[in-house]
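TL;DR need structure tokens for one chain.
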Amino acid sequence: MAVAIVGCASAPTSIALDPAAAPVGQRTVHRTPRSVVRATPAVRPAVPRFEYAYEPPQSADLKPIYAQVREADLWRQLPEVQAIDGMFVLPRPLRLVMAECGGAGALYRPAGTEVVLCYETLRALYERGQDQQRTLGLGEGYPLRYVRASMRFMVLHEIGHALVDLLDLPVTGRQEDAVDQLATILMLRFASGDETPEEVIDNMRLAANWLLSNSTGAYDLHAYADVHALGEQRYFNLQCMIFGTDPAGFADMVAARDLTPERAAGCEREMRQVVRAWLRLLLPYLAPGHEVYAEEAKRYLGWEG
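>> reply
TL;DR here they are.
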């Protein structure tokens, strides 16, 4: 089955990290956000950059996907990835690979310093998008939007694991939850310049939906002991971060049962704590030429100088 998964990205846009200047919601537009500005391209320093690869699959049904992503050079079409490529001083280059894995997934391999996105994942995302399109009567372009949004979150999640490993970042608690948070922050901050704030939030909601793809509602000891939180928990954690960017603009999420009132009450504080923590962790590793982001981070943290 041929799966159309390629598209073009343009210069990154910026959605401010401060919830007080956050993007408005997809369902109800209450105001025009003050937070959308075009990021000034930074001077690229001589630091280890990402390396990109597309490994040929053995399975015949994956070869059309391989041909499409290679021809489009899909890695370079992911705006958040391109925005952070060269942003941090890494001890060695990080390799981003698309490959056949034997099943859907994405992972970080410390031994090879590489993030792997499986061709099977792209196929599974497209098929889930098609199912939702048919069931919900959605537009023709929905499956492709579902693929793009979800894969961006997955890749950023795995890049988060890579940064924790390569920069030896301290993480207390479950690392899987921490890199979910980082992926969310990066998607909010470095979306494509062609995407409106509403579209960025919609991307986050599509990514959250994928977290429910393996949900059964019935779990055993292995599920509770897993390094990942349950899919439902990851889903609501992500919803809370979305809500926390603009509680007034997303008030309808509670009525729609995307969040409970009890959880929603603390989401703005949660979001602020998450952003501040990741800024503190990553700020010391910003590469030369990215001072604009250092100043932005310092202002958010309330640091002088």
